[in-house]
Amino acid sequence: MYTAATCRHTVMEQRFDIETAQRLKRTPGSLPMKIYAGLLLGLWGTCVAASAWGAPVPVGYVMTVQGDATVQAEGISVPATVGTPVVLGAVLETGKGGSLGLTLEDGSVMSFGPDSTFTMDAFAFDPARNAFALQARLERGTLNYVAGMIGKLAPQAVEVRTPHGAISTRSPQFLAKVEHEPKAP
After folding, report:
1. Quick check: 30 pLDDT over 90?
2. Which of 29, 32, 76, 156 sits 20 to 30 Å CA-CA off 135?
3. Angle (CA) 145 87 6, round 5°
4. What is the rounded CA–CA span in Å between residue 73 and residue 51?
5. Domain FecR protein: where (predicted)?
6. Domain residue limits, the chain
7. For position 32, what pLDDT does the model report?
8. How confident is the model at residue 2 (pLDDT cuts 50, 70, 90)?
9. What pLDDT digit, counting tens, does each position of 17-26 carry?
10. What CA–CA distance (Å, rounded) separates 180 from 60?
């Protein structure tokens, strides 16, 4: 479900803000102000409708990118840029010289080095309902994980699976490296 923060973020991204209206130098009630108000109302309605339709909700955002990195969600792969949303099921990949930093909604920070493949399988952060989960897969590459609120309130809810086992720790930070194993012919 889209939250007020998501809608506020979307509104700001579209640059339909008060400063834009003030730059129009029109009085309230003028045509540009009515258009501005209509756009804001329409964008708010889009946020509400998207949540009702079950649109994917971001669990985090790309915060840093260097070199080649992509985010794939629902069969669509896009180059990773700062601000790219990460949803459940998203696959993050970095190229040979690439790196990527991700911040989750609970404040957890994940950094990936070159040749990494990571999938976000489950995420829940609802302290009011005591619902916490962070489950993911690191298929190859490197990961530096720094715990956010989930890792502090419910460290047992954090699990990163690799081809060789699972990482579940009560530590506020861990490093993981999964060597790339070429497929047998």
Report:
1. no
2. 76
3. 105
4. 17
5. 91-181
6. 4-52, 60-178
7. 53
8. very low
9. 444 444 444 4
10. 26
The packing angle between helices 4-13 and 31-52, to 10°, is 140
SS3 151: helix
Where is 79: in which H helix or E strand? strand 76-79
Q: How far apart are CA 151 and CA 134, in angstroms?
A: 9
Band the pLDDT of 169: cuts 50, 70, 90: confident
Q: 109, 146 in Cβ contact below 8 A?
A: yes
Of 180, 141, 176, 142, the C-alpha closest to 159 is: 176
Amino acid of residue 101: G
Rg (CA), the chain: 20
- Indicate the SS3 state at residue 166: strand
User: Per-residue DSSP letters for 122-143?
Assistant: EEEEEGGGTEEEEEEEEEEEEE
CA distance 111 to 101: 4
Cα–Cα dist 87/108, whole Å: 15
Query: The pTM is what?
Result: 0.68
Query: 136 forms bridges with which residues in the sheet?
Result: 120, 160
Tell me which residue has tokens 């990961």: 143
